[in-house]
Design brief:
Blueprint (H helix, E strand, L loop, with lengths): L3 H10 L6 E6 L3 E6 L7 H5 L6 E5 L2 E5 L4 H12 L17 H13 L3 H19 L8 H15 L1 H12 L4 H11 L2 H5 L7 E3 L7 E3 L1 E3 L2 E3 L9 H20 L2 H45 L1 H17 L7 H11 L4 H5 L2 H15 L3 H15 L4 H11 L1 H10 L31 H24 L19 H4 L5 E5 L4 E4 L7 H4 L5 E7 L3 E3 L4 E6 L5 E6 L4 E5 L12 E3 L6 E2 L4 E5 L1 H6 L6 E5 L4 E2 L6 E2 L4 E6 L1
Antiparallel strand pairs: 1-2, 2-4, 3-4, 5-6, 7-8, 9-22, 10-11, 10-21, 11-19, 12-18, 13-14, 13-17, 14-15, 15-19, 16-18, 20-22
Length: about 625
Amino acid sequence: MKYEQLARDIIQQVGGKENVNSVVHCITRLRFKLKDESKANTEALKNMDGVVTVMKSGGQYQVVIGNHVPDVYKAVVEVGGFQNQSPIEEEEGPKGSLFSRFIDIISSIFTPVLGVLAATGMIKGFNALFVALGWLDATSGTYQLLNAIGDSLFYFFPIFLGYTAIKKFGGSPFIGMAIGAALVYPTLSTLTAGDPLYTVFAGTMFESPIHITFLGVPVILMTYSTSVIPIIIAAFFAAKLENFLKTVIPDVVKMFIVPLLTLLIIVPLTFILIGPIATWAGMLLGSATVAVYNLSPLIAGIFLGGLWQVFVIFGLHWGLVPVAINNLTSLGADPVLALVFAASFAQIGAVLAVFLRIKNQKIKTLSIPAFISGIFGVTEPAIYGVTLPLKKPFIMSCIGGGIMGIMGTQVYIIGGLGVFGYPSNISPEGITTGFYGSLIGTAAAFVVGFVLTYLFGGVNKAVAATPQPEVTPVSQEVSATKVGQEQILSPLAGNVVNLKDISDVAFSSGSLGQGVAIEPTEGKLVAPVSGTVSALFPTHHAIGITTETGAEVLIHIGMDTVQLEGKHFKAHVTQGEFVEKGQLLIEFDLDAIKRSGRALTTPVIVTNRKVISPSRATNVRSGEALFVINE
């Protein structure tokens, strides 16, 4: 199994499989629910090969992997045996805030169907595009078959959500599916064709004709295909009822009596009470959303589009998914997803500007795959690998993403991401000005993100430099560099030691690289060069910096200090961050480390260059010239 070792490492660093209540995944990240997040080693995960970053939000511990997350998820599930966990066990542990629990519920319900949801939406979108362009006739067999594929999930959406929702709430998935299937049972829809028996709530916005009754109780027949809220609420009550019945029904008949009673109670209750109330609530929610949008499309666009990438980072975008789907169900169109459509295009515009301007080769290399995946709407690699570490480019992309409010665009289906999202903006009536608005809006977002980042992104000075100490050359040979050479400053104040004289053979032999060692007299480590933090050990006892010319500088504070497990060390930077010469990197407690019995001798080496003109001084100050390397 390709990702077996990565899966084992991830499980270990989240606190072991006994610390995991549940794990799911979305497009780019593993979403853990942990019993105790304090047991997870976040820094170790962030520095692990194969992990982009770690986020904690919405009651979830999110390990960002990238586009291959389904394969990693499969390995994690197999290695950890999580497929055998009872859904009830997922509800153990800290609940978190009400909002966190809401985000967790929504993401857990919709994440499993996200891929199929996007796929079927894309098919419907392209089918509408082909008809609008005259490539297909709406009466042709090709169109009808493609439409059937596209409608396969949307029409029977309550069945799919019945499975995921009741599983989340701790019930049996097939009971949830049965409830969803009852809601879309085709024969019931034909019962509304004749004259009603009578009408309830006459003269109000809830006026409803009654065509059938259940045990004398009026049943308000509504259309539940593509609906979201009724089945989720019904699944919640079904799970609670099922688990209660399991405690009172004898084991000998439990297998069929529990689902029998659950269905007999919940399905009629859903048609009589839950369904109508949830549907009306959905209509009010949709109307409220449109009212806010109509109040000021510009402000709504700036808020949602501009902050969409921030919502994605913290997983908060899941809170808007049911709103959008509800709007499509009750109103036939949705402005929410239209307002955020341009955000990914602004993001890739910023990434392209970074690629053209950045001197750091590592970030330049990362920009290419990040740009490509961003074209198709997957922006996590761009966010976490490029723009967010550089800060300003991320801000510029947010500015560009807030432009869609003035375009009058709406979406008519849940479809693909990025360039695959354009067909979602085609109205059932054909190509309208709203569709052209999506083309113009995304192009404008791309240009704004690109231009602002290119001109004002500060990509080569992403981290504001701290006041740099004055460099006092300790020898003429060190201070005078020639073309093709690079000067390395002392990251510490202390006494200079010949690398060959230290006790650690790996360093003294020169097998790890050339350089010198320093016996520090002050517990502050500053950047000896300008470059990117390419390695920051979780224990913060060692750090690696790659300069813009590609030189790799490694600083290891003390001997065997890894055994301190991070005690007495405090990092002021993160991996992937760009730092300037003299910027404070790490603080450490000299006295505490000495009391632990560890030597403080600190090698400063270059792992991939030849060191020339080492300092002849016996002691140096922080920021003084230390040695020169050939580029």
